[in-house]
Amino acid sequence: MLVKVCQLCGKLAPVTYTCRQCKRQVCEACFKHEVHVCSECYSHLKQEMPLLTFPLKLFLLGFALVFVGMIFLIASSILGGNVETTTGIIIFVGPIPIILGSGPYSIFAILLATILAVLGVVFFLLLRK
Ligand SMILES: [Zn+2]
Ligand SMILES: [Zn+2]
Prior knowledge:
This protein is an alpha+beta fold. It folds into 2 domains: 4-48, no CATH class; 54-128, no CATH class. The strands form 4 sheets. Strands 1-2 form a two-stranded antiparallel ribbon. The protein has 3 helices and 8 strands, in the order E-E-E-E-E-E-H-H-E-E-H. The protein has helices at 39-48, 54-80, 106-128, and strands at 4-5, 12-13, 16-18, 25-27, 31-32, 37-38, 87-93, 96-102.
């Protein structure tokens, strides 16, 4: 059996992972699975993008979209003067949007929520660069 050594901390590692940035073989503790880079490259990445804290940003974005969607729906219900309630809600679970809708115009609400969600994802991807 080949004994591997972590190229970052120098410890013996039963399993090593290859960093996609520097191609170093690192141990479990030195590897960031979410981004597939070693802890050293990860700290560099974080320095380059200090504003990006992954799940929090996405969560806030999803929350903002729900809020915007709500405003749209309230505004449309006031302007339309329709007594029947139409609801469209979009919830983000990680990168997956869950779209909920009810009422006679829910299809439009869902459509609006979907458009907002797509815009949100596009915006999010642009921010990552
Ligand atoms: Zn290590
Ligand atoms: Zn690396």
